[in-house]
Write a structure and sequence with these properties.
It is built from twelve helices and 13 strands. By secondary structure, the protein is α/β, with parallel strands linked by helices.
Length: 316
Amino acid sequence: MAAVAFAEAVVVGTAREQATTTVTCALCGTPQPLASAESKRVASNVRRCSDEHFTVWRCADCGSLHSLSPADLARYYELYPIFAQRMNYAMRCAFRTRVRFLKRAGVRPGARVLDYGCAHGLFVEFLCQAGYRASGYDPNVERYRSTPLDGSSYDAVVCYDVIEHAEDPQALLRRLGELTRRGGTVVLGTPDASRIELEEPQKYAFELHQPYHVHILSERALRSAAREAGLTVRGIRHRFCFDTPYPFVNTQFIWRYARACDNTLDSTLDIPRLAVLARKPSLLFWALFGYVLPHRGSVVMALTKQSFDTSKEVKP
C-alpha cells in the first residue's frame, strides 16, 4: 500500500487507486486508506471560486479534517474577501467580546498583545483604543508581514481563525508559545472538526471554508497539540469568535442570513440586504435570540505558558 502524506496526496480516479492510497493525519500521524476515510466534496464559499470543489477527509483517530489536495493558496488569497473588511457595528461587537474574554484570562489594558494573523489590523486598532499595547503580524498583508516579532516578550498572543490555514498547525502553536512570555496567554479561535458534520457541507460551509482551511483540528487534537507546544488549556468557549450577545451579531443569524443569500463569505461582508430579511422573517428571531441557541461549530481557547496560575479557569 502506497503511503501518501497529506501534503503529497492527490485525488485519484479509480477505485483501485483509492484502495491503495493512504492518507496520513498531519495532527496525530495516523495513516488510513483513502477509500475508507469519511470524505466529502465541498464547494468553496468564496463567491469568485464558488464553482470549485475540494475533497475534505476526516482522521478516524483524532477526528480532525484535512483538505486532500493542497491548492495554490497564494492565488486564492488574492481573491480573499476578508481583506475587504472594515470597522463597523458587527466588528465592534465581536471585538468587545474578544476583549472581554482577554480580561477574563487576566490580560488587562496596558498588556503587550500581538495579533498573529491580523489581516488589515482592525483588531489591533481596537485593542490600542482599549488601552492595550498592541501590534499585528500577517504574512499575507504587506503592511504587517515585516512586523518585528520579539521572542518571549508578549503578555498575550491572540490568533483568531489562523491555525486552520496553517500547513503545519503544530509548528504554529510552538511559534505562538515562543512569542509569549512565561506565564503569558495565547488565545486561539478556530473551527472544531469534531462538531462539523461532513454530510451537511452547506450547513458548515464557513467552518469548512475551502480551500483556505487546510487542517481543521478537533478539540481533542487541539488540546493535544497545545500540550506538546508547552501550553496549558485554561479556559474554553464553544462559540465562533463572532458570536456575541449583541443583536444581529451571532453565528446562528449570520450563517442563516448567508444561506438565504448565496452562502458565501462575501454575503456577510456585502451591504445588508433588507429584502432578504423581508423574504425570511424568521431571520429576525435569530438576529435577536440566536446567541442563546448557539451554533457549536467552533472554539475559542485560552492557553497559558508554564508558570501561569491555572487554579482559576476562564469563564466563557
